[in-house]
Specification:
Number of strands: 0
Strand content: under 5%
Largest sheet: none
Helix content: 55-70%
Distance between the termini: 59 Å
Oligomer: single chain
Order of helices and strands: HHHHHHH
Number of helices: 7
Length: 148
């Protein structure tokens, strides 16, 4: 009897990638566009490793207002509601990531202004006096960077 992996459950990431493939198929079908075979295979594979998130995002961002209403925000279609939930969750994550990146950039700019040196690399950070970093962090509490 050959070995198999039927006893293994897909990870959360694999499930998310499979769901993304399913939603991309829905979008392409609604737009009357051909669905590539690799996308179909990804949608059928519970252990999906093909990341189609950028593709689905690009398709949604490229939609007209009418297409958004008919495809993403159609409350009468179950898959459309799932797509809307996926899109809103994805947009929130993008905004949080973007906000964190801007916040981090502001901290680095403040570091450069305060210390007159470039932001230290990981190896250099180990050499810097811990008290100096803590003093800098405390100064940010008194005058925090503006969050986006």
């Amino acid at each position: 009897m050959p070995c198999n992996s039927e006893y293994m459950n897909p990870t959360a990431k694999e499930k998310m990638l499979q769901e993304t493939a399913r939603l991309l198929i829905f979008v392409l079908d609604e737009l009357d566009e051909a669905v590539p075979e690799q996308v179909r295979q990804a949608a059928e594979n519970p252990y999906c490793s093909l990341d189609l998130v950028p593709t689905l995002c690009a398709r949604i961002r490229g939609m007209s207002g009418d297409e958004m209403t008919e495809i993403v925000y159609n409350g009468y279609n179950r898959t459309s509601r799932q797509l809307a939930d996926w899109w809103e969750t994805h947009e929130k994550a993008d905004m949080a990531r973007l906000g964190t990146e801007k916040y981090t950039a502001e901290i680095i700019m403040r570091w450069v202004q305060v210390t007159g040196t470039a932001w230290p690399s990981g190896h250099q950070q180990q050499k810097i006096n811990h008290k100096h970093i803590m003093d800098f962090a405390k100064s940010l509490l008194d005058n925090p960077p503006v969050k986006p």
